[in-house]
């Protein structure tokens, strides 16, 4: 009998007691290969000595200092490191404890930026269907997953959604990539014009869509056009790299591969690799200057922002990634894993698409390959896949359902960057 309100109240969860490398162990001595990094979190795998040592050392030195009184060394060093590797124009960092908090803070930054500039009418958020940006009220309203939003709808602010760039589902037969990129991005322009450009605050998107669509990368040229449209109408581009960022796609930031720089970017999961809860907003010089030259403060805050131990853990994770050249491993192992998936499932009657970037790969499951007909959601395929995989000692991340029109079931793979061909 547990006193924890678990997500799945009736599920009998194994008790995790340890982890090493790409494996987790339960109290009964069973090992599980972590092929999903939990939920794309454990980028260094489990039990990494360097990170553990950094956490110990920081805890002994300073565990906590409230940010209204102090700054602290690991937070300053982590900020320097993140800015040194950030997309063009990004100049500052705001540390929080996870992805939802990061997106919530980023939305408030976007709003306050326009308040500082006197553009008080800019309040509309445009995001995409089949997206997930977090479970707090603001981020839930922003995400386009109807199933997650449904019970809470009366509490959510109004937001607006366009179709994602999802070639497998939405590219028309015979349509070139370029034409599809133009059409998919054009939906943003149409929505901005419909709402009135002077009312639109931000466009929010995951460069590679994770949990709600199964590692869906954009087609070439899509984000370049999105950037142009945002610039044309003075709309801020907020890229949510909570899941796809921090090296998961083979470059530090997924958007590097699309040649765009956002005004705001959120990161979490792989930032601390699960060793501590941490997330961050990266913001542009322009936004920072509007705050600095305006009210002089950001009207937001949480008790654990810039947490020294969380920042020390993230710093250690990021140093290991650089020292061990793990992004090169993400690229080569990503290619290897994809080839293996294609060899094994490429002709499978129920695998419609295999896609992704780096070690962020997705399989879309279909009832019928030729029609792309999804499985009946009543089958609850994702829950069954997860259960079967766990019974075989494998952690994968299935998601899906058709309730919100996010057609299809998917399996997401996001193994640790330390993966080798043997594991
Ligand atoms: N944004 C994306 C793209 C995510 O995948 C997630 C979590 O899965 C979040 C935001 C929310 O992050 P967290 O669960 O750390 O609050």
From TrEMBL:
<dbReference type="InterPro" id="IPR005814">
    <property type="entry name" value="Aminotrans_3"/>
</dbReference>
<keyword id="KW-0663">Pyridoxal phosphate</keyword>
<dbReference type="InterPro" id="IPR015422">
    <property type="entry name" value="PyrdxlP-dep_Trfase_small"/>
</dbReference>
<protein>
    <recommendedName>
        <fullName>Aspartate aminotransferase family protein</fullName>
    </recommendedName>
</protein>
<dbReference type="InterPro" id="IPR049704">
    <property type="entry name" value="Aminotrans_3_PPA_site"/>
</dbReference>
<dbReference type="GO" id="GO:0030170">
    <property type="term" value="F:pyridoxal phosphate binding"/>
</dbReference>
<comment type="similarity">
    <text>Belongs to the class-III pyridoxal-phosphate-dependent aminotransferase family.</text>
</comment>
<dbReference type="InterPro" id="IPR015424">
    <property type="entry name" value="PyrdxlP-dep_Trfase"/>
</dbReference>
<dbReference type="Pfam" id="PF00202">
    <property type="entry name" value="Aminotran_3"/>
</dbReference>
<keyword id="KW-0032">Aminotransferase</keyword>
<dbReference type="InterPro" id="IPR015421">
    <property type="entry name" value="PyrdxlP-dep_Trfase_major"/>
</dbReference>
<keyword id="KW-0808">Transferase</keyword>
<dbReference type="GO" id="GO:0008483">
    <property type="term" value="F:transaminase activity"/>
</dbReference>
<dbReference type="GO" id="GO:0005829">
    <property type="term" value="C:cytosol"/>
</dbReference>
């Amino acid at each position: 009998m547990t006193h924890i309100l678990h997500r799945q109240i009736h599920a009998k969860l194994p008790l995790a007691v340890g982890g090493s490398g790409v494996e987790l162990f339960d109290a009964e001595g069973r090992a599980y290969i972590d092929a999903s990094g939990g939920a794309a979190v454990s980028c260094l795998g489990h039990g990494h000595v360097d990170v553990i040592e950094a956490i110990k050392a920081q805890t002994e030195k300073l565990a906590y200092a409230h940010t209204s009184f102090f700054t602290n060394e690991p937070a300053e060093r982590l900020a320097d490191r993140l800015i040194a590797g950030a997309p063009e124009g990004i100049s500052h960092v705001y540390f929080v404890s996870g992805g939802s908090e990061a997106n919530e803070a980023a939305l408030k930054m976007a709003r306050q930026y326009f308040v500082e500039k006197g553009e008080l009418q800019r309040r509309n958020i445009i995001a995409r269907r089949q997206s997930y940006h977090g479970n707090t009220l603001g981020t839930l309203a922003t995400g386009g997953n109807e199933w997650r939003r449904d019970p809470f709808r009366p509490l959510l602010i109004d937001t607006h959604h366009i179709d994602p760039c999802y070639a497998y589902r939405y590219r028309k037969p015979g349509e070139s990539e370029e034409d599809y990129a133009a059409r998919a991005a054009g939906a943003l322009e149409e929505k901005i014009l419909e709402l009135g450009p002077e009312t639109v605050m931000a466009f929010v998107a995951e460069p590679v869509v994770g949990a709600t669509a199964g590692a869906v990368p954009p087609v070439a040229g899509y984000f370049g056009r999105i950037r142009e449209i945002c610039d044309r109408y003075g709309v801020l581009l907020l890229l949510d790299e909570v899941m796809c960022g921090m090296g998961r796609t083979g470059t530090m930031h997924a958007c590097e591969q699309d040649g765009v720089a956002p005004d705001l970017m959120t990161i979490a999961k792989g930032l601390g690799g699960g060793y501590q809860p941490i997330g961050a907003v990266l913001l542009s010089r322009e936004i920072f200057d509007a705050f600095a030259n305006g009210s002089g403060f950001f009207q937001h805050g949480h008790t654990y922002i810039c947490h020294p131990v969380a920042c020390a853990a993230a710093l250690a994770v990021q140093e290991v990634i650089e020292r061990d050249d793990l992004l090169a491993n993400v690229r080569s192992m990503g290619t290897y894993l994809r080839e293996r998936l294609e060899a094994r499932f490429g002709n499978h009657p129920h695998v419609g698409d295999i896609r992704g970037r780096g070690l962020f790969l997705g399989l879309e499951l279909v009832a019928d390959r030729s029609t792309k007909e999804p499985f009946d959601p009543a089958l609850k395929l994702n829950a069954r896949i997860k259960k079967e995989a766990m019974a075989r000692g494998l952690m994968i991340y299935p998601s899906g359902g058709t309730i919100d029109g996010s057609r299809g079931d998917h399996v997401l793979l996001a193994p640790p960057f330390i993966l080798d061909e043997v594991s």
